[in-house]
Amino acid sequence: MGQPQQPDQAEAEEPGAPGPDAGAGTVPRAGAVAPPAGSTVGDGPRVGYWPAGLAGGTEKPQLRVGMVGYAFMGAAHSQGWRTAGRVFDLPLTPVLAAVCGRDADAVRAMADRHGWAGTETDWRQLIARDDIDLVDICTPGDSHAEIALAALAAGKHVLCEKPLANTVAEAERMAVAAEEAYAQGRLAMVGFNYRRVPATALGRRMVAEGRLGALRHVRVTYLQDWLVDPEFPLTWRLRKESAGSGALGDLGAHIVDLAQYLAGEPVVGVSALMETFVRERPLPAGVSSGLASSGGTAGRGAVTVDDTALFTGRFASGAVASFEATRFATGRKNALRIELNGERGSLAFDLERLNELAFHDHTEPAAHAGFRRILVTEPDHPYLDAWWPPGHGLGYEHTFVHQARDLVHAVAAGRRPEPSFADGLQVQRVLAAVEESAEKNSVYTPTHTPTAV
Amino acid sequence: MGQPQQPDQAEAEEPGAPGPDAGAGTVPRAGAVAPPAGSTVGDGPRVGYWPAGLAGGTEKPQLRVGMVGYAFMGAAHSQGWRTAGRVFDLPLTPVLAAVCGRDADAVRAMADRHGWAGTETDWRQLIARDDIDLVDICTPGDSHAEIALAALAAGKHVLCEKPLANTVAEAERMAVAAEEAYAQGRLAMVGFNYRRVPATALGRRMVAEGRLGALRHVRVTYLQDWLVDPEFPLTWRLRKESAGSGALGDLGAHIVDLAQYLAGEPVVGVSALMETFVRERPLPAGVSSGLASSGGTAGRGAVTVDDTALFTGRFASGAVASFEATRFATGRKNALRIELNGERGSLAFDLERLNELAFHDHTEPAAHAGFRRILVTEPDHPYLDAWWPPGHGLGYEHTFVHQARDLVHAVAAGRRPEPSFADGLQVQRVLAAVEESAEKNSVYTPTHTPTAV
Amino acid sequence: MGQPQQPDQAEAEEPGAPGPDAGAGTVPRAGAVAPPAGSTVGDGPRVGYWPAGLAGGTEKPQLRVGMVGYAFMGAAHSQGWRTAGRVFDLPLTPVLAAVCGRDADAVRAMADRHGWAGTETDWRQLIARDDIDLVDICTPGDSHAEIALAALAAGKHVLCEKPLANTVAEAERMAVAAEEAYAQGRLAMVGFNYRRVPATALGRRMVAEGRLGALRHVRVTYLQDWLVDPEFPLTWRLRKESAGSGALGDLGAHIVDLAQYLAGEPVVGVSALMETFVRERPLPAGVSSGLASSGGTAGRGAVTVDDTALFTGRFASGAVASFEATRFATGRKNALRIELNGERGSLAFDLERLNELAFHDHTEPAAHAGFRRILVTEPDHPYLDAWWPPGHGLGYEHTFVHQARDLVHAVAAGRRPEPSFADGLQVQRVLAAVEESAEKNSVYTPTHTPTAV
Amino acid sequence: MGQPQQPDQAEAEEPGAPGPDAGAGTVPRAGAVAPPAGSTVGDGPRVGYWPAGLAGGTEKPQLRVGMVGYAFMGAAHSQGWRTAGRVFDLPLTPVLAAVCGRDADAVRAMADRHGWAGTETDWRQLIARDDIDLVDICTPGDSHAEIALAALAAGKHVLCEKPLANTVAEAERMAVAAEEAYAQGRLAMVGFNYRRVPATALGRRMVAEGRLGALRHVRVTYLQDWLVDPEFPLTWRLRKESAGSGALGDLGAHIVDLAQYLAGEPVVGVSALMETFVRERPLPAGVSSGLASSGGTAGRGAVTVDDTALFTGRFASGAVASFEATRFATGRKNALRIELNGERGSLAFDLERLNELAFHDHTEPAAHAGFRRILVTEPDHPYLDAWWPPGHGLGYEHTFVHQARDLVHAVAAGRRPEPSFADGLQVQRVLAAVEESAEKNSVYTPTHTPTAV
Q1: Could you tell me the pTM of the whole model?
Q2: Where is the GFO/IDH/MocA-like oxidoreductase domain (chains A, B, C, D) (predicted)?
Q3: For A219, nearest residue in chain D (alpha carbons)
Q4: C436 and C342, same structural domain?
Q5: Between A and B, how many CB-CB pairs are < 8 A?
Q6: Are residues D389 and D248 part of one domain?
Q7: What is the number of CB-based contacts under 8 A between chain C and chain D?
Q8: Helices A72-87 and A398-413: angle between axes, nearest 10 degrees
């Protein structure tokens, strides 16, 4: 029986493709459950939008999720957990067990809205619960390390939003803890969701296939414009103590990870320039959720993070790169744009048109060559066999559905998920080198090689 | 009852905007429930991703949905019903009560996957159930009329997939029945989901605001390519008895409705040309779900529907139009493209880039004028206040979430939903005029004016 | 010696490639001169921007041009004749011998500006001159037939602007006369310059190579907006007696020719709708040059031509087509857009981005397929070996340079140029069928098969 | 002498706009000639394609041009000089008096092809001629200083290709000499032709009008791919002694000038990274013209210039910038792309689509805002009143026509042309800072403030 939604036997690391038979798992697993025997994917013609022979999801083992934080990312992760098992054929059924936040009324309302069974107001209580298998951390970066370390220590799987931490030291501890936890069968993943856009996952596949040849250039920008107005209030995202950094940690973390992911190699050094254009902003009087605030204002306060970070860099292979993250690019709303140029071909992607990937095949005769626009909506594109017919595109939130899907497969198989905490640490090291370079008059600053991990 | 394409005077009719105070309802309603007092949408600064003061969804009245058909459209509608109440603040909570299909195992599997509480194998049983408030019809067009008429007669609200029916006669009966049912407080809507792309809803708003001035041109294509391969099997979509017509009913229905919706006026006549390029195809041996089939083939059969339909036409105002629907436009996957040119401005939309709307303001000085790309992801764009920050786009399936949202609001308010069955009938009349013109050597053929409705 | 600017020995009919050795000419030629023996092109690496071994242009025979008409087209043709021999290595040197217009002062000023040696105020005088080899007709359509017939009768080569004539009867006489003149060694060409955009010429080459396979669809629009303002004056282009028709003859002629050229086959029938949106306009008081006028106005007059023409049609092979020509598409300035869909691939072109051709290769795996943007600026693209490095684009007027180049080669080789008057007649027949269909309620109207030619 | 990038107060400095009444000239002029009294441009309705009242070009004074160098740039400049007076109404008639090159046969052939009256084989002879008013230097950068200084000393006007020189020291001498020559009525201009694309000139006008507000970001790339093939031969452009630098001087010079021109302010410091990917290439055996070579190869030699240069920088106002110049961006042929983000709006331009300018007006309501594509072909766009109707685009070579036009106006008016040698020097200082930073581990390196000039 063809079961089109189920993933195939392809290499376990490829996004959109799950792990091999769980029986192949080589590490001890606590609570992980094998997928249905004989589970296969993608073979045979596509007969419909559900698996005709499926015995019913109720009998599957559950993966009980407890989420900390309930704002923008909390909403996005909720969509991911709720939808993943409806669209993909998963070995475990995600259960929205409990959501945690300090304001009891607000977290209750959020739980009702998004379908979380319970609530907590103290993340330590959440972690202490027996009926939680996985802790999903959606708080600002300053609390990531503490929560993640405690959750891993408590025997939970952990999904942690990016950036992994606000400092390299924290990130290093987290990566060590993740490695130790893995030996106990517990998994840790960092939420670089843009790896899970079908178009970027396809791009990674094409690079890995050698379609770009020797890499020469990576250029990537992440342009937004929501801070252009000098009267935009001083939310937590604009304070170093909560956010760690500004555009750098928020947007720069994404593009460093995505660039390294697509290139398949690390950034080894950078030269950086950072700037804060508007150095004082109105203090919000009421609730602040990061991207917006309610209520009036109460005086003005200093912006203590960067408005923009620009840096050039080198990859391990000798390819050169340029990066730019900003919240002041008027008219650009979410313009994460990346281009890779190799000796044999090039790729280009723009998050504002996330269903498309541009590819230039330089091995073709010049008379017929050119960047082609691949509409990444075909059944044999990553993640797409479970979705809609060609041309019927996906949106931003689907990256969280795919993230949940891939993590569930990893848990079931006892396999290290990607991006790992070590990947998150590597990004953190690059961000630290950026800050160091910016402080040292832009001098070229090597990224410290990971040693502990 | 006038011309269904013209927007109602009430602000409430705007897609993405909620209904007025339910107390304003002027027709009897059975089972409809007022939204929470004070419920408003989109006013005030945005404080987060859920309403802080909401008392909790569990106390809301329910809207219990029974769905007939469970293939492509069934999956899409499931996503819509499951998600609408999680994202939008709805006056009623949609409940996925039961799904109906002839193959008991398959429908059971689908119900498990998508979260439908129960199953039925006979739609008459579904309709007979007391615990169903709304029947959602996702079957091929040949069964729409029978099911919808029975469901309305049984006192259910009805959502019927497009095209409304396979013939004008059926559609007329359905429109009459819908009108009668409305007097009893029961609502009927047809599933032209492309009205609920935020970009098209914004386009409608801009036309209604007069930004285009006197309309001169509408040109619209719906281009797909999945039939180019002559070995693609003869599924139900290629047989007149099940599908009614080919590209015309499937794609042409969408573009006729969308053109009339955006223009705000009806097509009054057409001149058409239809063609079947591949007249014989392999018979599928196994299950056929419309866009694909499993199993082998068993000989060849005649394609009895059109592969393409092209027509020119006139709108009531004197604007001229061109339409093209095809499944043979190699490389075009879902290219529903529409452009409207008016004396004061123009709009253009492409479903393959559904988060964008192009607008040319002809009242600006020529030196600075040009088509602008509006990224339709701002909080004050239709439906967007409930979704993500600017630049974080939506996908195809969100149209079904919005459709569910709007229908729930209409039911709660006892207000006629749009597009109504009368709107569906108007589309059917245009399609019939197209077929008549094509049979009569393309002679210009007026669209019969609606009389009964 | 590599002489990169010189054309190669490729098939004579391909645009951008000149004829074979003139010695191969099989018809009598009067005044035609063989190109330099051993002329070859494009072999060897490109060494520079002039032929190192060229003996000097002064010794080449001349082609003395007399031009009738001196407005928009006159200026464009002047650029073509003046530049062609500077960029391309031509067998004959074009000489701007004389320009003719009724207003002696104005034509003198134009001659001085554009470098025409002499002037005439009566085209009969121009034709009577011994020192004119080729008559270039740039007047409105109502005088084409008379001038062209007289010029051919006087033993001149003729280049006639499009549309060939204002009626089929005139065009037929012209095609017959051209055929008779050819027997006397005199050539006639019609000025469909859009065949000579490198991108369209490349498109034709790709179609001829079979890259599209069986043709299914052609859709083409030519959208302008300069008549949207109802106060735009009633110039000659808006009067049937001078222009023959409106958007149809002006824009429609171009797209019918380009569609037939790219498809490589004729349109065999059409169903049409024509409309005049603004039926009365101010009469210009002063000089009118077609696209603009000076001076004030003197009352209002009736517009006697179409503002727009839309038609569907069939090609000889069974492919279907849609056409739209309009001067009311607000925001579209020169949007000649054509797309061809075949079983194996598709092409798309937009005159507003004339250095690009989009190509979809449907024989590639779906996972990597998509429309590619070919930047048509490579040395092995048509006409490009004589111009700039890759990526350095050409403009509108270059089509006239290429037209002059190709005609000079044809004259030197005594070879029939394309598009011929027979090609112009075929376009005229399609336009006549369009007008006939529009008058007959859009009924499908076959294009009369050429018989005399 | 201030900051050369800042626009002159005089309206006359706007590209595409002619000079004021020559009588307003305040400096001594030798040989400069007043334009015809009453000569104006662009005022009044457009009546045609030539000035009806023009007395005839033969009576105009001449500007006799002698050109040194005759390869790619020589061909482009020839087109410019030959065409400018045919299209624009110029106060002086450019005469292609003589072209100079070392190979007598080759330069003779080039002169014949492009219409130069005479030839020279020694540039000193050219400069010594009485019948030359202006020396146009199209040689590689290593000879610019010597020729320009000699020409100015000989009392000639000078147009010098970019980069102005290969070193800052040379450029400083040239700028001083230009200033001294100006006191004698002789003018000097540097050939940054991309200022004269209508779209960039429009962009400059919009920035000057304040449409961008406070500038925050400039990002600019110039991407080509002609060196990707490691077997591409070692032409003069790849050797430091002839070219000075690689991508930096060739492409980087263009983008630094264009960025400063559009921003209206200088770059004050940079942090740079340079790389040579392919360090050895085949030596060309025969003639080498920079972009190509003929003949075979003779061993391999070291590439002594950069393949790519990336740098970040700061503008005087505090805006930050990123620059990238490369010849290794596979699939990018001539992708000079620049974007400026200001507090009130943004501009974007791509040389591969040079008839377009994208503009985002951030003062509009977010619901209707977005980047608009201005098709820069309107009569009130810079330079466009002399060309074709809207939508009929120009090409690369037109920048040289416009350059010739503007220089002729400047000469006639005795007015300093832009970009001046001081502008060229400023670019040179930035390039030098880039090289210095790249050598010093990317440390931020201020651009030395012009002092001598």
Answers
A1: 0.90
A2: 204-347
A3: D324
A4: yes
A5: 200
A6: yes
A7: 200
A8: 60
